[in-house]
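Narrative summary of target 7.
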Amino acid sequence: MLTGVNLFLIMAKILLINSNRFKHPWPVIPFGLCYIASSLESNGNHTVSFLDLCFSSDCEKDIQKEIRNFQPDVIGISIRNIDDTGGYQVHFLLEDVKNDVVDYCKREFQGPIVIGGASVGISGREMLEYFDLEYAIQGDGEAVMPEFINRIENRLPLEGLNGLIIRRENRIVQDNGPLRVQDLDSLPFPRPSRYLDLEQYRRFGSSLQIQTKRGCAFKCSYCTYNRIEGKQYRLRSPKLVADEIEILVKETGINRIEFTDSIFNVPLFHAKEVLKELSRKNLELRLHTMGLSPSAIDEELLDLMKHTGFNEADIGAESTCNIILESLGKNFQKNDIIKTANLLRNKKIPATWFMMLGAPLETKKTVLESLNTIEKLFQNGIWFLYLRGFVCTMELPLRMR
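Modeled conformation, tokenized:
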């Protein structure tokens, strides 16, 4: 076992740990970590062990057993969430990760521990301080993690490695900035069935998570997507996306698919091409995506969505007041929201609308404008309204007649 990063390894043994145990609204299959595992196995002579703690009833026992049996040289811990994003009584999930995962790993293992995941892309420096660890990866870990292991194997300096944050002697000594893989089609497919017991995820109705792209060119004031994935779109081949879905459905037996792009329908042409490729597969799918933008919705997109397996739509409107939309950095206006609502009603597609209250410049007048517009728009249909944001988070079923 490694006692430092300057020892030569003949074959690296890497233990990857999924620390996410948050199950609302359902347990999330750790696809990001599966991508890392696939990249490690395809980029070197590495042995990978995968410890999924999502359903663990005794993390200490499971971590101790895995470390003692596998004897890893490096441990990678994936950290998905900072908190539960509740509007009140917020649950600080990093405390659970520290107490139930990181501290046990540090007690049992003296070698390099590196953290990564979506939350690390937001607050990697702070999380190293909080966990009292040395290494964090931000950006696309599929490229950073293999090079991190390679440098350890070959006794090369870790300084200067893109995507790596280094903390030594209680201070951050390097923050090399996130690494972005430009050619996403070069990444190997994840193989969750190879690394995970999916049976419990099936019982909860968990979705397979698919990205058709990474990055976000929008500048919404409250969002962290472009901090995590970059400010420019990196598009995947629509055919490869459809192929990946087909392979995963056959391998896992799960046909519920969630597109986890920041915004699925932007660029609009790309979303349409993905759905066209998917329609050629003739798969029976249940499709969902968290957030369509009213800036890029037309009849062709909605027809393709219905044909491929979408039975509902989620719309990230946030407000129906132009003053508030501008203050949030949105690239659409009230008229785009009205157009979207009419298209959805004409196509008979149920929708969940996401709205915010308490944004910068929000007043009683702007709140009433949004709520009154919603009441007028959502007549003659059944809609679900999700209020979130700077003041509160609550769910309201609205039945407008």
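Residues 93-108 form the longest helix (16 residues).
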